[in-house]
Amino acid sequence: MNRLITTLFVAVVLLVTNQSPAETPNIVVIMADDLGYGDVSCYGATALETPNIDQLASEGLRFTSGYCSASTCTPTRYSFLTGTYAFRGERTGIAPPNSPAIIQPGTETIASVLRRAGYATGVVGKWHLGLGGPDGPDWNGELEPGPLEIGFDTCFLLPTTNDRVPQVYVHDHRVPNLDPSDPLWVGSKKPAPEHPTGLTHRDTLKMNWSHGHNSTIHNGISRIGFYTGGHAARFRDEDLADKWVEKSNEFIEQHQNEPFFLFFASHDIHVPRMPHERFQGATSLGFRGDAIVEFDWCVGEVMKTLDRLDLADKTLVVLCSDNGPVLDDGYEDGAIEKIGNHRAAGQYTGGKYSVYEGGTRTPFITRWTNRIQPGVSDEIVCTIDLAASLAALCDQSLPANACLDSFDVAGALLGIDGASGREHIVQQNNGNNGTYALRAGQWKLHRYDKQTARNIVVEKQLANTEVPQFQLFNLVDDPSELQNVIDQHSEIADRLKSQLAEIIQSGRSRP
Fold first, then answer.
1. Alpha carbon distance 47, 289 (integer Å)
2. Is the per-residue pLDDT at 62 higher than 60?
3. Nearest to residue 156, comparing CAs of 313, 15, 266?
4. Residue 453 pLDDT
5. Terminus of the chain with fewer CB atoms < 10 Å: N or C?
6. How far from 151 is each of 59, 103, 172, 217, 262, CA to CA, in Å?
7. Do 299 and 305 contact (CB within 8 A), yes or no?
8. pTM of the predicted model as reported, rounded to 2 decimal places
9. Residue 6 clears pLDDT 70, i.e. is over it
10. Are 46 and 429 in contact (CB under 8 A)?
11. Could you say which of 421, 454, 486 is where a domain stops?
């Protein structure tokens, strides 16, 4: 019934705007990396300006309760693509450099749904969902399965994440520019005693590490993991954003005369934060702030391309983040020392790695020029919902055994009067290690099966804090989750405990 109502709403909007009911928009999803709720000026930041994101918000709908489903990158990306909570899957924690493909061929994804609807589908940027068969990637051969086996027509990727080796691109099934005489090797152990690392050659680094991140050195920065060879294929950190814009614009231009879906997965503002030289020093916040400005530039360049090709009123743009912020995430880049009064998570507690609101409530904006009425929405929406919502928008049905936790909230995403977002959302930190939170309306229940939580207050270092198994917060009275009221509201806590347990155990939450 909800899907029928949403479909009728969408049809009415299209008819009112003199569009054919059969017309569906191009779709561009721009996902930042580690961007906090308070990191952009349209969400309250004053220490820097993000004019392009601000313009996107002023021309579209800015959500105050927009979420990702996990507070780390791999599980959020898994959930975004599959429409299923990552704690239901295997190997969905932060992927190591040699991880095999986590999403297996045959899995229904947002890309496969849209390709079935006639869309050209592409992903540009950070992948971090593994490549290759059970033995992991064949870096010198065919890198499959990968995005092309789960619904994408093409991809141009950072295969892992840039604090993990190797620093090469992947185009479709191969690493471009590889020299066969200099094969690429990636491993978890030091390849030779004399191999330079962040431990043995720390004095040569242009960005020092603070914890971990002290293995193979590339571009003056040490990483997680080891690799050798592939020198002709390696990239420079400073050039990543330019490459993502180049390849995103190339995809849009190639498919401007047909429906297209682009997933632009930025690496900004993840560590190592090494923005292009033209952005270095752009803010008072150090390289972290400079990387935010660089990301904002990327958003502006994509918007310019849509305008130049007269596609703005034919394209639904969604801007989001894969999780909340973190300051020191392994490198001494000035993020803590230069934070000043900036609140990366806004008023919210926590950040990356935590199930406090700062870990999963992020900037979330939708724009479809002349279709979405500009404004602000407090409806609860999540990146996991894009699969079912876009399927409904494109009149595609979902198999019963697919997208198990994705709700059709297309009406809320489009700002249609009377349309609701989701009533509840489960949040997790990383993988399936028993740390969850359930938001239902104004109430938020935390559950820690291991009795500890990596609780990040972003002004400070990472810390593992002892916590009770359950905590309850009233987000209306206490949005910062500072007062545990479980003793005063035990009946509400018991109801949410049962609801969370049922969602986890049932294997699905989509009706």
1. 9
2. yes
3. 266
4. 60
5. N
6. 30, 11, 12, 35, 12
7. no
8. 0.94
9. no
10. no
11. 421
**pLDDT beyond 50 at 14:** no
DSSP string, 59-114: TSEEEEEEE-SBSSHHHHHHHHHHSS-GGGSSS-SSPPTTPPPSS-TT---HHHHH
Q: Are residues 381 and 456 in the same domain?
A: no
- The whole domain housing 441 covers 426-506
Instruction: Supply the DSSP symbol for 374.
Output: P
Please indicate, yes or no, whether residues 358 and 488 belong to a single structural domain of this protein.
Answer: no
Give the list of residues 6+ apart from residue 200 with CB closer than 8 angstroms, or none: none
pLDDT at 466: 78
Q: Which phi and psi (to 5°) does residue 280 adopt?
A: -65, 125
Whether residue 232 contacts residue 177, with contact meaning beta carbons closer than 8 Å, is answered with: yes
CB 240 within 8 A of CB 162: yes
Cα 108 to Cα 92, 116, 509: the distances in Å are 16, 11, 16
Q: Count up the domains in the chain and report the number.
A: 2
Which 8-state DSSP code applies to residue 54?
A: H
What is the chain's alpha carbon radius of gyration, rounded to the nearest angstrom?
22
E-state strands within 241-384: 260-265, 315-321, 365-367, 375-382
Structure tokens at 368: 């479809």
* pLDDT exceeds cutoff 90 at 331: yes
